[in-house]
Amino acid sequence: MNRNVITFSKNVFLPLTTVCHNRCEYCCFRTPVTEHCIMQPGEVEQTLANGAVMGCTEALFTFGERPEEEPGFKSQITRAGYDNILQYCHAMCEKSIEAGLLPHTNAGIMTAEELEYLKPVNASMGLMLETTADIPAHHNSPGKAPDVRIEMIETAGRLQIPFTTGLLLGIGETMQDREESLMVIRDLHKRYGHIQEVIIQNFCPKPGTPMVNQPGISFDEMCVVIHIARDFLPDDVAIQVAPNLADAASLIPCGVNDLGGISPLTIDYVNPEHPWPEEDALRRSAGNYALQERLCIYPQFIAKGWFSNELEPLIKRLVKHVSGQETVS
Question: Which residues is 105 bridged to in the sheet?
């Protein structure tokens, strides 16, 4: 991986539902079940079409974890014409491919069968590890149990799914916990070779949440974690920060080489108070480094052929759209 290059992707953010079975104390994304708790297919397709016109290459599909376990959600997804949220996600991923955007899904905890179901229509997938620590912020969130999350990341590796994971800093974990979390990710990647990027994300307090008064971590502390990540992780794993949440220009020298997905069209629904920077702002943040657009599937996984036949024509076309990547033979 070229350390003189800072990469990013251009995406649309599609929260298919914000209903979630977890109750994380820092989250403002989760909402209760209502008649309008599902993003309608027409809105999804229009967003995909608009994103394609604006040059986006990625459709980031996300939703609350296990929404069917919330009373009343089943009737809402049935009314939308689907048996469950994963079936709906699969259908919208197919619409994304038709529109010319590569799907990347963050669906929370999934079984091996569910991962296999979504794999053919996703160029990559993701799940934040967040932390290996048992912290109060996760006590009402069964899907945030560290062993459950580690198991899913490992399963994704066995299935050869190009994968994104990461740490959420400042939610009650210690520096030792952060080191342990990075070692877990490192060891999983050494075993399966599937981690393409690790996000080092700083917690941002949200109004109306139990952790609204919890301070975020300092710049110096975040820089130390990035240095540790760069020391622990293999060179083929990118280290990413969110440029709408942190001072990317100052953190790049700490070891950052990816600025994640930004959208010219949709907001960050998880952090709605933090707008995406424009591409020119990313270029300024990169400073003397070269800024390079990438796809949501990294070049090494394209070279390995870790994608389905359904995705191959689109990947071939989009590889030519972004510079610095070779075409698939």
Answer: 61, 125
> Which domain covers residue 150, as residue numbers?
5-321
Distance CA 309, CA 187 (A): 30
> Residue 329 domain-assigned?
no
How many Å from the N-terminal Cα to the C-terminal Cα in the chain? Answer: 21
Tell me, what CATH number does 26's domain have?
3.20.20.70
The percent of residues above 90 in pLDDT, for the chain, comes to 95
Number of domains in the chain: 1
Whether residue 326 lies inside any domain: the answer is no
Read off the pLDDT of residues 46-88 as tens digits, 9 standing for 90 and up: 999 999 999 999 999 999 999 999 999 999 999 999 999 999 9
pTM of the predicted model over 0.85: yes
125 located within any domain: yes
Q: Give the confidence band of 216 by pLDDT, cuts at 50, 70, 90.
A: confident
